[in-house]
Inverse folding.
């Protein structure tokens, strides 16, 4: 497992470079974007959206990057922090290949799958909210990533 953790799943150039390294040089077949219901960065963006006030400091950088997903969530009828977390996860999954030609190529070639998940800390429930892929073998058959050798 190759893990990259950022507040609010923010994907700057350093994160994208790290993902490209994992995909292109280490042949990582699966990227998981995991949002959770107690995400402080998404909560800060959600509260800033409602109040019109910014939290200050470098937290403003996080909020500015997450704010479009909060607005998108509202436009899609996704309310509250859970809705904002889900939308931010979906938007992050879509944005990664849009910003990275290396990752976009790996998806197109069937070498990579990207899955967006949300995690509820209260009950441990995980939900799939986004998916790009799938990985197929040379004959075009789906590959089970859990048993892939």
């Amino acid at each position: 497992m190759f893990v990259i953790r950022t507040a609010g799943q923010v994907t700057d150039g350093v994160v994208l470079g790290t993902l490209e390294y994992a995909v292109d040089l280490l042949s990582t077949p699966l990227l998981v974007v995991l949002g959770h219901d107690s995400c402080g960065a998404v909560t800060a963006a959600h509260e800033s959206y409602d109040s019109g006030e910014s939290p200050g400091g470098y937290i403003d950088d996080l909020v500015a990057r997450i704010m479009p997903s909060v607005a998108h969530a509202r436009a899609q009828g996704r309310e509250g922090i859970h809705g904002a977390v889900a939308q931010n996860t979906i938007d992050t999954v879509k944005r990664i290949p849009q910003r990275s030609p290396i990752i976009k190529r790996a998806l197109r070639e069937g070498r990579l799958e990207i899955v967006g998940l949300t995690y509820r800390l209260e009950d441990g429930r995980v939900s799939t909210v986004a998916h790009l892929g799938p990985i197929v073998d040379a004959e075009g058959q789906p590959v089970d990533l859990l048993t892939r050798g």
In short: The first helix runs from residue 13 to 25. The beta strands are 30-36, 113-119, 126-132. The CA atoms of residues 47 and 75 lie 16 Å apart.
